[in-house]
Amino acid sequence: MASDRVQRRHTAILAADVAGYSRLIGFDEADTARTLHEHRAAADPIVASFGGRIVKTTRDGVWAPGTPKGLSRLEEGLRRAGLPE
């Protein structure tokens, strides 16, 4: 069917984890958990605002597909929140 067209869109996939997580947990578990929670609290609404969604999380990681523009917005939002990228 010539009239059936495939709609294409660019997708960015955010895959992130905390560098040195095991070491940080071993050093100060409560502070590491609090800091991770603060990062997620800042990042989650930004991911949702660009139409992204959190697909999978691990203790120190996240996997979220979205748009390339959205990934740039996430990086900017983390900078404004004073959180490392």
Write a concise keyword list for the protein shown above.
85 residues; alpha+beta; Alpha-Beta Plaits; 3-stranded antiparallel beta sheet; 3 helices; 3 strands; 16% strand; elongated
- Specify the CATH architecture: 2-Layer Sandwich
Neighbour order of strands in the largest sheet: 1-3-2
Strand percent estimate: 15-25%
> Span between N and C termini?
46 Å
Uncertain parts: none
SSE order, as H and E?
A: EHHEEH
- Helix content bin: 40-55%
Biggest beta sheet attributes: 3 strands, antiparallel
CATH topology: Alpha-Beta Plaits
Provide mean pLDDT, rounded. 80
Under CATH, the homologous superfamily reads Nucleotide cyclase, GGDEF domain
Oligomer: single chain
Estimated structural class: alpha+beta
- Which geometry do the CA atoms define? elongated
Number of domains: 1
Q: Quick one: CATH class?
A: Alpha Beta
Instruction: Give the radius of gyration.
Output: 16 Å
**Helical stretch count?**
3
Question: How many strand units?
Answer: 3
